Amino acid sequence: MLNVATGAKWVLGNWKMNGRLASNQRLLEALLADPQVNAGHVGLAVPSAYLGQMTHLLAGQALRLGAQCVSHFADDGAYTGEVSAAMLADLGVAFTLVGHSERRQYFAESDDSLSAQIRHAYAQGIMPVVCVGEGLSARETGVQDAVVAGQIAGVAAALAGRDRVMLAYEPVWAIGTGLTASLGQIVAMHEKIRACLLEKLGSSCTISILYGGSVKADNASDILSLSEVDGVLVGGASLDAGQFKNVCYGAAK
Ligand code: PEP
């Protein structure tokens, strides 16, 4: 489970469907050599195919291993292609993304499926990082708050009663596009998400809200300096050791 005691902000990378054995090893070795990156508040969500390799390379290291998705089936069985939360736990996975916009878009993940994924992850001691965010047309028509509130409502029952929850606000129009939400847009949405979660989950729950969407070396420290932002979820820039390290330097303060 992800747990941070240092007060540093989270930096979670998402490699998406990228990597090969040799390039993964090179990238990871460059990151592990840097104590500001090889730290408990930094994690990498890697493709399922490479989780085993990462388990091996990360043995005894502080940097945390993450998955990009988890099956909504809990038990072993005839679910071809699926990877269960129990399997992820077996590999030492500390967190898993749930409901990334690319999963919602290409794999039609429903609220029921996402809720099951969240429950199974918690049951295995894996922190689900629930991704929410509006598309461009919702932002352009001003209904982004309602869209995000609806996504949270869809999984609220699975989050209820937890000591700690993590969400990532990722406006879909900012993912992989080079567009970043303005600092004002980020603050406004994070405040709304926090208020919505407090209302649904109560104040005893520790809430972490990350921002994701074209976070890079040159914008990370401004975003991470916002008190409403508890960390960042980094896609493309997590594939480049120099970029990812620089994002981490903004979080380690
Ligand atoms: C992501 O994959 O969650 C993401 C935010 O990607 P990028 O940083 O490339 O926009």
Structural class of the secondary structure composition? Answer: alpha/beta
Given this structure, which CATH class is correct?
Alpha Beta
Shape: globular
Strand order of the largest sheet: 1-2-3-4-5-6-7-8
On the 0 to 100 scale, the average pLDDT is 95
Verbal overview:
The protein has 253 residues and is of the alpha/beta class. It has a single domain (10-251), classed as Aldolase class I (TIM Barrel, Alpha-Beta Barrel). Helices cover 40% and strands 16% of the residues. It contains ten helices and eight strands. It has an eight-stranded parallel beta barrel, surrounded by six helices. α5 packs across α7 (144-159) and α9 packs parallel to α10 (241-249). The longest helix has 19 residues, at 183-201. The radius of gyration is 17 Å and the shape is globular. The two termini are 22 Å apart. Phosphoenolpyruvate binds at residues 14, 16, 100, 170, 175-176, 212-215, 233-237.
